[in-house]
From TrEMBL:
Domain (NAD-dependent epimerase/dehydratase) ranges: 4-224
Annotated organism of origin: Sphingobacterium sp. (strain 21)
Protein name: TIGR01777 family protein
Domain named DUF1731: residues: 253-299
InterPro entries (alphabetical): DUF1731, Epimerase_deHydtase, NAD(P)-bd_dom_sf, SDR39U1
Superkingdom assignment: Bacteria
Annotated PANTHER family: EPIMERASE FAMILY PROTEIN SDR39U1, SUGAR NUCLEOTIDE EPIMERASE RELATED
Family: Belongs to the NAD(P)-dependent epimerase/dehydratase family. SDR39U1 subfamily.
A Pfam family: Epimerase
Length: 307
């Protein structure tokens, strides 16, 4: 493999993955909404999923596709219109690519796609593996439809992999900066009971897992993309406070307060999913940051150096 087509390349994970792939010598074709200037190893191609428009040259000489495109689930309240956009941004986008591939004039052999641990819903302290049925709620059914849309590539002779990603922790942006912000001000507090499990992964391990899936043709189907150490909301806040040297003294924020403010979106903060990475570990993948302590120390130490 030498050329990889990436959807959602401008997102946090997409940018890190593009940088890692080019460092390894790959050429990246990035599908974007607005034209951008090419570099030596990154070529940009435009598309518009809503209008069904895609630059047909984006798949020329491409060996594999990484599908990361999707509307941000935490950006706006989940109105009916927003829920539809979240779903279609994931399913219609890969459908548009498969429509292009169905012409047969390409050399693409595999598709590695994002999915989410929202697939499982609120399962408290049950250990969750990939063979569970999807939750009968918005996120569960969205992830299920997303994975089914990706799996349709098998009818085109493609190897398909879907990685159910937990919350990605990184120095820049993402959920961790929002969680850490009040703690840095000495105003941190657990949310709800604090007992809800947060499936998480360090950005470097997420990127490494996408590359591992690309480079290991034995992988097929669904794998959980989460670190081996499960943590609760309370444990996460305590560990952040410890590393930052800040107190964690405020009482927990009651669940009903979050629900009154956020509505259904409060599920992102209150649902519990204790997700197992055993399947990807058994496939040979190894984590660089397997514990929450090593992950947070790396991120916050980098943050201090960059200040």
């Amino acid at each position: 493999m030498k050329r990889i087509l990436i959807t959602g390349a401008s997102g946090m994970v997409g940018e890190h993955l593009t940088a890692a792939l080019t460092k390894k010598g790959y050429i990246v074709h990035a599908l974007v909404r607005k034209p951008q200037r090419d570099s030596e190893q990154v070529k940009y191609f435009t598309w518009n999923v809503e209008e069904g428009i895609i630059d047909k040259t984006c798949i020329e000489e491409v060996d594999a596709i990484v599908h990361l495109a999707g509307e941000n689930i935490g950006k706006r309240p989940w109105s009916k219109n927003v829920r539809t956009k979240i779903l279609k941004s994931r399913t219609d986008s890969i459908g548009l690519i498969y429509k292009l591939l169905s012409t047969g004039n390409h050399q693409v052999k595999q598709v590695v796609s994002a999915s989410g641990t929202g697939y499982y819903g609120n399962k408290r302290d049950e250990l969750l593996s990939e063979d569970r049925v999807p939750a009968d709620d918005f996120l569960g059914q969205t992830c299920f439809a997303w994975e089914m849309a990706v799996a349709k590539g098998r009818s085109l002779g493609l190897r398909t992999v879907s990685l159910r990603c937990g919350v990605v922790f990184a120095k820049e942006g993402g959920a961790l900066s929002k969680i850490a912000a009040p703690i840095k001000l000495g105003l941190g507090a657990t949310l709800g009971s604090g007992k809800q499990y947060i499936p998480w992964i360090h950005i470097q391990d997420a990127v490494n897992m996408y590359i591992y899936a690309l480079e290991h043709p034995g992988l097929q189907g669904v794998y959980n993309m989460v670190a081996p150490e499960p943590v609760t909301n309370k444990q996460l806040n305590q560990q952040i406070a410890k590393i930052l040297g800040k107190p964690l003294w405020l009482p927990p924020v009651p669940a009903f307060v979050l629900k009154s403010i956020m509505g259904k979106m409060s599920e992102l903060l209150l649902d519990s999913a204790k997700v197992s990475p055993d399947k990807i570990l058994n496939a040979g993948f190894r984590f660089t940051y397997p514990t929450i302590e090593t992950a947070l120390k790396h991120i916050f130490e980098r943050e201090k150096r960059d200040e």
